[in-house]
Design goal:
Distance between the termini: 72 Å
Strand order of the largest sheet: 2-1-3-4-6-5
Helix content: 25-40%
Radius of gyration: 26 Å
Length: 573
């Protein structure tokens, strides 16, 4: 798909670079405006195979690409100009590394003679992301003395980590001297392209890298261990298909299955996701007390109570299966670590557990759900009751913001059909770029996407509402606005002289009405659960983005404490 006409040498190199990335499977380019990156932008505009996304804010742009990469499970390219524009990608690069997402940064740069000499918009860019990229290369300025095969093999070598691992961000710094724009006479590129005839006539990368065939071997102790009493935990699993395979395998094995909210199984019958509210249940404790072995699929568990309980027990074996090639053992429990996709590991470890009756935690979860329905039947409008209402109405995709929203959902027993796919940013677990990531995730599906987010997270990423305004499918942002960061009420933060409110919660009186108007979003502010329910269901049918703001005076963590107390009282009656 490479063009035959090039404005100049910069344009030729940029076109060859993007064509090689296309052959590596890149389809989405996220582009921020800038002059130094003009060769890359012109090449992107001329290539018919790419989907292009633009944004004026590089920080949001990086997270937009992250969300697209998560949704499509393909590498995504970010193109920026030089200078501080590159630095604005730092939070997205950190998150991409933490959750092993292939984000490819193409940062345009000035040539060497303009670095460290006071030239405008010139900063040292090589190594700017420190150790967060899995690979970083600093391409030389385009020159007719350097064969294009050097450029192509350099790209191929940098991207080889996508198949050999570890996965994560790749930084390619691209120096472009002037001229950056077309001159009167286009470049005669034939002498430079002639040595690449094999590449030009093919559709594959110049150098094809092949991953060694690695098969998961059945663990030598598995035939004995699968007969022991054990416990299964589903952590972060991005693939709904693999999560379903795990659920079926667990049913055959007969071990109880605890599901983190990020497991894609939290709404499934026969599983238990609300560990925090359930863990004092005698029935649950009796089932869990028999376990001598833990097998966990996917890392980054949300529940601190579950993590604490796991560390308090002495396990004969603790296995973790997760495809990410990084250390994922914060409590130092693992006896065996498998870097493997879930499906591949399950195939190598058949069940055949004998005559053991399948474990079913549904009675525990259903008992808690019954108590919660009774509790929320009072229809009091609050943060927790709104999340409970939402959990039963969800359709399409769900993106959940960090801090309180993800914890509220992780606590509750979940009803309804649940989302088709659920996504979070739990790599670094920050509040950066959540709206932008959700916008990218929404662009990967024609289904409605719901975003559940807190007020400080929205304020932190307000610019990215511009991205949501471009949504074609329904995109519903549910903003829980309790006037600050209420999660600090869950922590032992002292509040003498209102210290917690002033320096931790950052109390405010802001609302999102003006922001929604500025970015052209439908705006709603229901003040009771029935109105919220109707508004949300209507928004799911409405093309484009909607913002539903729930202005709530009480804090979700306080409501959670009240619910927990009510459940304990009910259990003792």
């Amino acid at each position: 798909m490479i063009h035959k006409t090039f404005a100049n040498l910069n344009h030729l190199w940029a076109s060859a670079l993007l064509e090689e990335l296309y052959r590596w499977g890149v389809r989405d380019l996220c582009i921020a405006p800038g002059s130094r990156s003009a060769p890359l932008v012109m090449a992107a505009a001329a290539h018919q195979g790419f989907i292009t996304h633009t944004h004026f804010d590089e920080r949001g742009l990086g997270f937009l690409g992250l969300g697209i990469a998560k949704g499509t499970e393909r590498p995504v390219v970010i193109i920026t100009t030089s200078g501080s524009a590159v630095a604005n990608l730092y939070p997205a690069v950190v998150e991409a590394r933490q959750c092993a997402i292939p984000l490819i940064i193409l940062s345009a740069d000035r040539p060497p003679e303009l670095i460290d000499c006071g030239a405008n918009q010139a900063i040292p860019q090589p190594g700017i992301f420190a150790n967060y990229p899995v690979t970083s290369i600093n391409l030389p300025a385009p020159s007719s003395r350097i064969p294009l095969s050097f450029l192509l093999t350099s790209i191929d070598d940098a991207l080889s980590s996508l198949i050999s691992g570890p996965a994560g961000p790749v930084h390619i710094n691209c120096m472009y001297p002037e001229p950056l724009y077309p001159a009167e006479q286009p470049l005669n590129a034939n002498p430079l392209l002639e040595p690449l005839s094999r590449w030009l006539e093919s559709e594959t990368p110049y150098t094809r890298y092949h991953q060694a065939e690695i098969q998961v071997q059945t663990h030598q102790q598995w035939s004995q261990l699968r007969s022991d009493p054990g416990l299964l935990i589903a952590g972060q699993i991005d693939s709904p298909r693999q999560a379903k395979q795990l659920q079926e395998w667990a049913r055959e094995l007969g071990w109880p299955l605890l599901c983190d909210l990020q497991s894609q199984l939290a709404w499934e019958e026969g599983t238990l996701n609300s560990f925090d509210l359930n863990w004092q249940s005698p029935e649950l404790q009796e089932q869990l007390s028999r376990a001598q072995v833990v097998i966990q699929f996917g890392a980054r568990l949300l529940s601190k109570n579950l993590a604490r309980w796991l560390t308090q027990r002495s396990w004969q074996h603790y296995w973790l299966i997760d495809p990410q090639q990084q250390r994922l053992d914060p409590d130092h429990l693992l006896s065996e670590r498998f870097c493997s996709p879930v499906a591949q590991w399950l195939e190598a470890h058949p069940t055949e557990s004998g005559n053991r009756a399948p474990s079913d935690l549904s009675s525990v979860e259903l008992g808690l759900a019954r108590l919660c329905r009774e509790y929320f039947s009072r229809r009091e409008f609050g943060e927790l009751s709104a999340v409970w209402e939402l959990s039963a109405l969800l359709q399409g995709q769900l993106f959940i913001g960090n801090s309180m929203p993800v914890r509220l959902l992780d606590n509750l027993p979940l009803g309804g059909d649940g989302p088709a796919r659920l996504m979070t940013n739990r790599g670094a677990s920050g509040i950066d770029g959540l709206i932008a990531t959700a916008s990218g995730f929404a662009r990967t599906s024609s289904q409605p996407t719901t975003v559940l987010i807190g007020d400080l997270s929205l304020l932190h990423d307000l610019n990215s509402l511009a991205l949501t305004a471009e949504s074609q499918a329904p995109l519903v942002i549910i903003l829980i606005n309790n006037g600050g960061g209420s999660i600090f009420r869950m922590l032992p933060v002292p509040n003498e002289n209102r210290m917690r409110e002033r320096f931790f919660e950052l109390k405010h009186q802001l609302n999102a009405r003006g922001a929604a108007q500025m970015f052209g979003l439908d705006y709603h502010q229901p003040d009771n659960l029935d109105d919220f329910s109707q508004t949300y269901q209507q928004a799911l049918k409405t093309r484009g983005a909607s913002l539903i703001e729930l202005q709530i005076e009480t804090a979700g963590c306080d409501e959670l404490k009240a619910l927990r107390q009510w459940i304990n009282d009910a259990a003792s009656r």
